[in-house]
Structure formats: C-alpha cells, structure tokens
Specification:
- This protein is α/β, with parallel strands linked by helices.
- The protein is built from 5 helices and 6 strands.
- It has a 4-stranded mixed beta sheet with strand order 2-4-5-6. The chain has a two-stranded parallel sheet with strand order 1-3.
- The longest helix is centred in the C-terminal third of the chain and has 30 residues.
- It is elongated.
Length: 198
C-alpha cells in the first residue's frame, strides 16, 4: 500500500474541502423578475420626450438594498416606460425616483433554553419608495408636478432561510411598487389632468 506524502495528503485534504464547500454553496440561485406595469392601460400626455432621473440615496442607515438580488430603485425607474405615453408637443416630462430604500432593524428575541424552542420574529424590514413627475415647457419652466410615496413594513421570523427571506422582501417590493403606481395615477388625474389626452 502506497502512503501519501505530507504534501500529497495536504493536497488531497484541500481538494476534498473545496469539493465539500462547492457542494454546500452550489444549487439553484433564485432569480427575481422586474416588476412591470405593462398589463395596465397607458397614461397619455400631450407632451414630448420623457427624461428619467435616479435621485435616491443608495445607502441610508440600516440599508440592506445591496444584500438582495433585485433593486427597488431600478424597478421604480422603469415605471414611465410601462405607464406613460406621449403625443407630440414641445413640452417634456421629467420622472425622478427620489427615494428607494430597504432597511432592516433587529428585533428582540427570546434567549436561553426557551429561545431554542421559540420561533421569534427577528427582523423588521422597512421599504419606502417615492417619485416625482414634472411637466416642463420647451424652456424648462415647470407647468405642473406630482409627487407620490409608498411605505411598507414586514417582520421576518428567525427560522426563515436566506431564500425565504429574499422571497418575502421581493413580495413586499412588488407590492410597494404597485402602491406607488396607484398613487402616481391618482395624483396625475387630480393635478395634471388638463395635460392628458383622454
């Protein structure tokens, strides 16, 4: 029987460790589609081009936006592509996402032996998104403006897996973007109705 040298043994152990690590970390990676509003009727403005501005702070205190595999802000930026249409005047629309945050706060959980048998809510997730739509004339003078904001919160239990947590946050992200859409449409009809083509 041939014995491995010390270097050979180290190499074999390193290879086994890498294979074990790959087995633990590999697996299906969840993908989350962008939220869209294509199923809704367009809002048609008597205006020309649409400018989009990303104006939110990407890293507020407690932000976990970079820890999830989707972006609330980037999806909110797609709203005018799906909901707005323009029909030819020299006026223009400027759409700005002014806030898009997902933050987390730790909650108090049960300690000791009792805690082992208790599935507490361990984290509170807060989502907030806000947007502004301006109508400007050819010289950049504002003729009208609406602003909309939506907020949601959800708690996550300590027994949830990473993928379950991501799915829960994605569901709230989808819901808050639909909230934003409803509020923008309400504000537009109430305050910019004279610029719409019915």
């Amino acid at each position: 029987m041939k014995l491995l040298s010390v270097n050979g043994l180290r190499t074999a152990l390193a290879g086994a460790a890498i294979a074990l690590l790959a087995a633990c970390t590999s697996g299906p990676v969840a993908t989350y589609p962008d939220v869209t509003w294509r199923h809704l009727p367009p809002i048609v403005f008597a205006a020309g081009p649409i400018e989009k501005v990303a104006a939110w702070n990407g890293s507020p205190d407690g932000s976990i936006a970079s820890d999830v595999p989707f972006s609330l802000g980037k999806m909110a930026m797609n709203w005018p592509d799906d909901r707005l249409q323009t029909a030819g005047t020299s006026d223009m629309l400027r759409y700005s996402v002014t806030e898009a945050s997902i933050t987390s706060d730790s909650l108090k959980t049960t300690k000791g032996i009792k805690g082992v048998f208790t599935d507490d809510q361990s984290d509170k997730i807060d989502l907030k998104v806000a947007a502004k739509l301006e109508l400007l004339d050819a010289n950049g003078v504002q003729k009208g403006e609406v602003q909309a904001m939506a907020e949601r919160s959800r708690t996550l239990s300590e027994s949830m897996s990473v993928s379950e947590r991501e799915q829960a946050i994605y569901e709230e992200t989808s819901a808050i973007l639909m909230d934003l859409d409803r509020e923008l449409e309400r504000q537009i009809n109430a305050n910019l109705g004279r610029f719409l083509l019915r």
